[in-house]
Write a structure and sequence with these properties.
Keywords: ATP-binding, Cytoplasm, Magnesium, Metal-binding, Nucleotide-binding, tRNA processing. The protein is an alpha+beta fold. 37% of the residues lie in helices and 20% in strands.
Amino acid sequence: MSLVIERLAGQPVACRVVLQDLAATARLAGWLSTWFGPKDTITLTGDLGAGKTEFARALIRAFAEEPGVDVPSPTFPILISYDFPRGRVVHADLYRIIETDELDELGWDELRENALLLVEWPDRADDRLPTDRLDVELFHAAGTDFGAGLGPEARVAILTGHGSVGARLDRFQIADGLIEQSGFAAAERVFLQGDASSRSYTRLVAPGRSAILMNAPRQPDGPPLRRGLPYSQLVHLAEDVKPFVAMDRALLAQGLSAPLLYSADLDAGLLVLEDLGREGVVAGSPAAPVPERYHAAIEVLAALHTRNLPRTLNVAPRVERALPTYDVAAMLTEIDLMLDWYLPARGIRLDGVVREEFHLLWRSALNPVLAEPPTWVLRDYHSPNLIWLPEREGLRKVGLIDFQDAVMGPAAYDVVSLAQDARVDVPEGLELQLVSHYVKLRREADPTFDVRGFARSYALMGAQRASKILGIFTRLNDRDGKPHYLRHLSRIRRHLARCLSHQDLGSLRSWYESVLPSKDFAA
């Protein structure tokens, strides 16, 4: 479905879509459901019988991923709420509202807080509509310049983005062009649950094949944290899609299974990628590691870490990406998340002296590790980002995604990310097998490989990573309203305790034991 953008100077961004039948109307609604979610507002306007309720019904069913879900008209109850795995949807029909004061009885101002709000007859809300919203105007195609040759079911939809939604609607049209360019114009769009980032993903499903649309708009910098720089720059997080494209091409050049890039708009942050599938390296309920797959994943790391990998990567012709160094400053900034989020959530607040002691201990511990020859650190090398591809051979059996934050740093970091998975229980016996297999492969490639030094690096990177994740998962709950991450905290505390038990990390362990409750160290 191609969208034609009509830009009007000083006006919101608008798209016009000719919908030949009800199926096309449902298809447009379904795609919009992958771009809008909780805290968004979509208003529906048009004459009686233009299809507003049918459009809302199709959007709600697509959002629910349940084609048969019952969606009655809200004309008489005014509001109908739905709770789905993706979030809450509120469908409002304001036809019977006479005065805007009546909206207060409905709790109007609170409706959008954690819900996708669909509003028919939005003019009855007058100035109570949010500034940032999408308006969908529907009218019969018959009698218009676009109606020639179309049947009685044909409609024209005018999508208008108000406020910040204008930019999103612009991206919506760019994405449609990329999808068409990639040969997936007729594909069904299916929302994919993403990670903790602001990126979103849509699976494009066509007969016999599929692809992934990555929607990763450039993120504005956060407030200055240190040296006038925001957190994302201090810890070298990707701020647009160029780092992803660079590492994607670099991994493919190494003969590994990263997604092929079908089409891209680097400035808009939109990519259409090969769909590596849905089969991961864990299975069952609750999810547990499949040893064969974890062993294959550790072999990928061992192979990479024996190679002379480039620091400067190609993004596009005459566009390069130099991988940043995972330095002491970045690691300390990450660890501070534990001090700033996890400890306060447990009623623990530190004075400046104790914090400075913490930083001195970590600097002393990190310097020898960071002096080692660096390699690629993909940084999120764990079960959510590894796809199992049994039809491929050798190292290519492991599909790699979510590597845009890659840096140059210690080889042990990705090894511990896999073997001490933050989201899945990896039995200690399997962890030992994985690390031993990795060491064996490294020594086969280089008999001088420092096993003892690697063991210390593994423990230190594990402690750094666990400390950081305790802070991140607490922040996701406290700041972002994502409480499901808290269920992983006990596992991460166990990882932290086991890593700090290494004989060379006694000073660090003493600091943690003096600050954290003893139960946090029940390794």
